[in-house]
Amino acid sequence: MRWLLISDIHANLPALESVLKRALQIGYDRIMCAGDIVGYYPWANEVCDWVRENVDLCVMGNHDAIVAGLISPDYFNSWARTAILWTMEHLTETNKEFIKNLPLKLEFPENNCLVHDTPVAPMSMYYITDPYDAVEVFRKTDYRITVYGHTHIPAAFVFNGAQVMGIKPKDLFPLRGDWRYLINPGSVGQPRDGVPKASFAVWDTDEGVIYFERVEFDIDAVVEKMKEVGLPLELAYRLYEGY
């Protein structure tokens, strides 16, 4: 079976559409999303509608948690706060209820886990960005594979039984049955690694490999839509730089 791994869509419909077009070319059977469906960009209802209808496993991200009333919007900077307050005003009641009912963490067969930030303390908004961060997760959990997001940067961390290593994601990433992994597919809607392309991954459980992918999307369309609805243009312009 092939899982499409996505995270941090952030209501960026042009980016999501580009990801889905490329993912269909690769082929996938089911979809899991590591949270942050909304926030930043203006297609909150369109993206939520798609997630409700198509995603098999989904957890709550910290932007979603503000919609759910679990976190104060005052936690965010002014641009992000403006965007999430706009989102809350425009979301349908159906989509608000959907977001409120998302779990913080999901465990799925063969001792695997899906979470937004860290399985050690979901919704702590802790960033797993290097092997030192990953060590705590490997020490305090026993999941074979944890799929996470939050950092907006594609990443893979490996525990081989003796040490934790960070491995730069590449087109084809093999998984060893006796090793444990933290896998971040990166952000669909707002990449932050200096590459202005949407990021995702496809996990082939039969072959034991993960394909990391990047795809261009229509940033100009995001800018124009942000102008139309009056959201902070800085959030759109940053997409040109991928940060």
What does this entry show, briefly?
By secondary structure, this protein is α/β, with parallel strands linked by helices. Helix content is 32%, strand content 21%.
Record keyword descriptors for this entry.
21% strand, Purple Acid Phosphatase, chain A, domain 2, 243 residues, six-stranded mixed beta sheet, 8 helices, 32% helix, alpha/beta, 12 strands, single chain
What does this structure look like?
- With 243 residues, this protein is α/β, with parallel strands linked by helices.
- It has one domain: Purple Acid Phosphatase, chain A, domain 2 (4-Layer Sandwich).
- Helices cover 32% and strands 21% of the residues.
- A 6-stranded mixed β-sheet has the order 3-2-1-11-12-9. It has a 6-stranded mixed β-sheet with strand order 4-5-6-10-7-8, covered by helices on one side.
- Strand 11 and strand 12 form a beta hairpin.
- The mean pLDDT is 97.
- What is the CATH-assigned architecture? 4-Layer Sandwich
Order of helices and strands: EHEHEHHHEEHEEEEEEEHH
The whole-angstrom Rg is 17 Å
Low-confidence stretches: none
Class based on secondary structure composition and strand pairing: alpha/beta
Output the CATH topology: Purple Acid Phosphatase, chain A, domain 2
Give the domain tally.
1
